[in-house]
Every structure is written in C-alpha cells, then in structure tokens.
Design brief:
It comes from Crocosphaera chwakensis CCY0110. This is Methyltransferase type 11 domain-containing protein. Residues 99-142 form the Methyltransferase type domain. This protein has 216 residues and is α/β, with parallel strands linked by helices. The protein has one domain: Vaccinia Virus protein VP39 (Rossmann fold, 3-Layer(aba) Sandwich), CATH 3.40.50. It has seven helices and seven strands. It has helices spanning 16-19, 31-44, 78-83, 123-133, 155-158, 162-174, 193-197, and strands at 50-54, 70-75, 89-92, 108-114, 134-144, 183-187, 206-212. A seven-stranded mixed β-sheet has the order 3-2-1-4-5-7-6, with helices on both faces. The longest helix is centred in the first third of the chain and has 14 residues, at 31-44. The model is unreliable at 192-200 (pLDDT under 50).
Length: 216
C-alpha cells in the first residue's frame, strides 16, 4: 500500500539542504544500539563485497575487523561524509527531490540504512532503486530506534508506534516486486517500573528489518 500525501508530510517543510547544512558529529543512538548494529553487520555482511551506506554520515558502524572491496556512501553533508573513514567514495543527493540513484544496475552486495529511513518522503521509489542496484541475493538492512529529528520525519513514521513502524518498513519492501519476505530483529529492554517512576529512561530500543533481492 502506497503512502497517502498526508502520510508523506513533514512538520518542517523547509529545504532539506538547509537543515543538513551544518555537520553534526554526534551519534544519534546510544552505545548499546551501535554495538548491536555492528554485530548484526558482522553476522550478515560478507567481506570483500560491495556495500552502499545510504543516508550515511561521519560513521558507518561497520566492523573494524571486516574489509570490503568498496564502500559507497551517500548523505546530505559533505563534511560528515568526508570524515567517514570507511567510505571509499561518496555522493551528495536529496532523495526527497530526486530518488534516482546515480549507480549501476546489479552492482552492490548490500545496502544499509541506519536510523534514517524515517525521513524518506517517497520510500517506494527509493526501495525500487535499491532493488535495481542490488545484485541477485543482495541484502538490505534497515535499522531504527525511537529517536528522530521529529520535524523532519514523515507523518506516517512520526505518528506511529514502533510496531507500526516495523509494519511500515515491511510495506516498503512489499511495494517492490522481487524482495524476499522481510525478517524483523528487535531488542527492547523494558525499564523496571520503579525506575520509570523516578523518571529514568532505558536503553534505546533496537530494530532491524532485513530483506534480500530474490534471484530471477
């Protein structure tokens, strides 16, 4: 099911290039989330392969002990991408203005989107492009938590629960013929009630939705 125009809306409709103009050399999730993501990459990615880190920044969370033939980066801030030591090459592009990726067909073994998918206004078009550039049996790993730039997240994501966001990602994959049934990985550590009463917050919840480009 495709998103409605209302579901694609952002609270801040201003220019995305202006919003991302200044670099943010911070991580937007906690260390526990990052460790889980890096371990997931270690388990699912293969060394000596070609990786696209879509909607990336100054860090890719790839395992230090894994080498890849090529890591292509994409993002919205030149300074952030230039500082990322894992990227062999990168390009700048506003995917909400132009979803067409400047990449060849069947060229990547894996595509990664870490804690950024909530900002895509036309995810169906982007996931179609991901399918196009992936090799047969290529992997997609989309990870997220409950943090976001609230004003830049689309309504369908912003107004949903985490369970609804998982379903939303499943629908993104289902919108493109040729992806396998999505696999969901989640780790949510509930905070004891007495700590909630004290106003303490727990660890960032970890979610990943994974699919493959099916071979024809």
């Amino acid at each position: 099911m495709r998103l409605s125009p209302h579901q694609r809306e952002k609270l801040d409709p201003g220019n995305d290039e202006d919003f991302y103009l200044s670099p943010r050399f911070v991580t937007h999730v906690d260390e526990g989330f990052i460790d889980q993501l890096t371990n997931l990459y270690r388990e699912r990615l293969q060394p000596k392969t070609r990786i696209l880190d879509l909607m990336s920044s100054w860090v890719s969370h790839l395992p230090d002990d894994m080498e890849f033939d090529h890591v292509e980066g994409h993002g919205m801030n030149q300074e952030e991408l230039a500082k990322n030591p894992r990227l062999d090459h990168y390009f700048l592009q506003n995917l909400n203005d132009n979803p067409k990726l400047p990449l060849k067909d069947n060229d990547f073994d894996a595509v990664l989107i870490a804690v950024s998918v909530q900002y895509l206004q036309y995810p169906e078009a982007i996931f179609s492009e991901i399918h196009r550039i992936l090799k047969p049996n290529g992997l997609v790993i989309v990870s997220f938590s409950n943090r976001m730039f609230y004003q830049k997240a689309i309504s369908a994501w912003r107004d949903g629960t985490d369970a609804m966001r998982i379903q939303l990602l499943k629908n993104y994959f289902k919108s493109v013929a040729g992806f396998s049934k999505p696999e969901v990985i989640m780790n949510v550590s509930p905070l004891p009630s007495f700590l909630q009463i004290l106003g303490m917050i727990g660890a960032d919840p970890f979610y990943a939705v994974i699919s493959q480009k099916m071979s024809s």
